[in-house]
Amino acid sequence: MKRSKLLNVPSVALIATGVFFGRGAQADTILDFDALPNGVGVNDVVAQTFGDAASASSDGVTVAGFGTPNIGLTWQSTGGAWDHYTESGGGAIWTAVQLDSSDVGDRHELVFTPNNPAASVVIKSFNLHGYYISNERFTYDVSILAGATVVSGPTNISFLSDATKDHPVSLSYTGAVGQALTLRLARVASTLGVGEEEGDPYDIAVDDITFAQLPQSTLNAGPQVISVTPVNESLAPPDYYYVARLDDGITGLKASTVRLRLNGTLVSHTLTSGGGTHLVSYQTTGLLPPGSTNTYRLTYGDNDNPPNDFTNEVRFVVVNYVNQILPAPIVFQDFNATAEGSLPAGWTRSNLDTVRDPASEAGINYTNLDSGAYTNWTVVEVNRFTNLFETYSQGAATPPGEASDYQRVLTLNPSNVVNGVFLRNFASGRFAFGNTGYRLDVLGQVMYLTSPDFNLTGRTNVHVAFHSLWEQNQDSIAAVEYSVDLGVTWQPALYLLHRPDIATNLDGSINSLATFTNIDASGAAEFVSGGVTNGGYYGAFIGVASNLWGTLAPYISGRVDDNPVESKRVEVVRLALADNQPNVRLRFLTAGKNSWYWGIDNLGLYSLPVVPSFRISSIVASGTNVVITWPGEATVRLQRSISLTTPSWQDLPGTLGASSATVPRTNSANFFRLSKP
After folding, report:
1. What CATH class does 1-219 carry?
2. d(CA 601, CA 107)
3. Distance CA 187, CA 160 (A)
4. Of 219, 273, 629, 659, which is the most buried if we count CB atoms within 10 A?
């Protein structure tokens, strides 16, 4: 799970020499993060209002001269957030904004928006620095965008954490009058030297972001978009969902002028106003096509004399989702009828002795992750994870960043579509929850949740499907197993592991025996049995007999460490030996040492239709094309239709007997199928 941010700082104090572009220059604003704003703690997410309209210095913001009274900021990212990390005390060396979860493929963006059409933005410079670990290399493509257009860069920046605080990046770009600019830091793969490793996604920060405005005079501040969903240039969910928050500024929003268009078509928005802020929202049924590029364009005016017109445009690409089709369930459990702290009738839970720490809270307290409430699987209210938690029961106040950390349990994954509906609310009401994180238990947590036996007589092609709110850690495992003989033996269904912990053979295939027998270097959970400490390897926790571990490769799924998005999935898993069985029992295992969590909701058993072998395997965007793949057969061809309401299927030339096709991308819907005489 998330570790202490300065875990690897050397014990010898470092001197922060700092390169501060713009200090003392005319009319600059420098986001130096030297002090935390009032009420903000270390690891807290940067507020959307931080750095806005800066005409005088404040906590964490230094204004030189005139400042930037007509520039507003929007902090946005994929895969993580911008977090304050400002030490206190005279020996403090770390005062910056952390690129929280800046992994390869993720990006952090800062949008500079004039709140008057006569103002221009000047982006000058910033500092990149790691957490002083000498073998970690970080590489970024740094760009400036105007809307979707790259106007500067990308410039490739690569450096090794070298016990200095400063890796300055000079930009000096001036935007057009009234033009919003986006500073983008996109993490890319490094070219590693001998002994180097890719930098940890939590070991990187930015400091001394320096910018200015032209002209150097205060203009009337008009209404401004403070935040918008979807984020510009993002990979977005497929539903029709838009929310923009605006403030009034000085001249105020003129409500009658607000218009919202999707791909050029005027849509019916909702405007909610109060307290000088406004929400423009839009939502309707249906899904946008997978991989499609779309644009929301918001226009509005103010009450100035003469009035000013404003535009905010976001372009986004819909994730290449797959619509998972599930029939009516044989058995279904959503946990909503179960009281918090208990389990549904017939369900049981157990855990292995991992030796509770005496400093942990003994009682049942659902707002303390280190209390007795979370020593085992339990049903919990979903809305708890929109609030704060206590952690590590040591008598002191929980740091703000830790207190809000488990809001990541409800992180949105844009790919979850079932029966034509995007699952924006992935868990609701109550759900089953197993936690191993923010606990003092020195050996970790090993917990089992077991269902009653279900009669599947006469049922074929049996699958279990459930909403899985899992977050992988470098030393944790989640497992689904099942039994058809009243729990005497257990069969494999799914094992989730940190990808580097999955052993492979020389040909790259999974070596499941080694995976389940190797002692985990990062410290897998342990437990005490008969006075002896056991565990430390993943096979210690699973139910499948050890002589079968070498056969488990097909059931192992590698997941990404500390990623709150990628394992929020609808898991659909075949239970091959459950067909026509009168007693089918499920078991869910989670084991970790100060790791993350596993939530389970909307669990069902299904008899799925048998899918023909000639089915489409993948549809993946590739530049201006879409690549479609399938298992090739001599008599199978690919067909396309632009509508499913009145379909007209046309053969795609050259696909008979093939196994892939490359098709140009369009902004209109395209539907594909395989046809076999």
Report:
1. mainly beta
2. 30
3. 14
4. 219
